[in-house]
Amino acid sequence: MTSYLIFVLKRFGQFLLVVFLGVTITFFVTHLTPIDPVEESIGAITQMGQSDPNAIELMRQSLRELYGMEGSIWQQYLHFWLRLATGDLGPSLSAFPTPVSTIILRSLPWTIGLMTVSTLITFVLGNAIGALAGYYRKDMVLKAVSLVFIALLPIPYYILAFVLLIVFGYLWPVLPINGGYEMNANLDLSFALVLDILKHSILPALSLIMVGAGSWLIGMRALVSNIITEDYVVFAELGGVPKRKILRSYIARNAMVPQFTGLAMSLGAIFNGTVITEIVFGYPGIGNLLIEAVHAGDYSLVLGLSALSIVGVAAAVFIIDILSPLIDPRIKVE
Question: Which of 155, 200, 234, 294 has minimal CB crowding within 10 Å?
Answer without folding.
Answer: 234
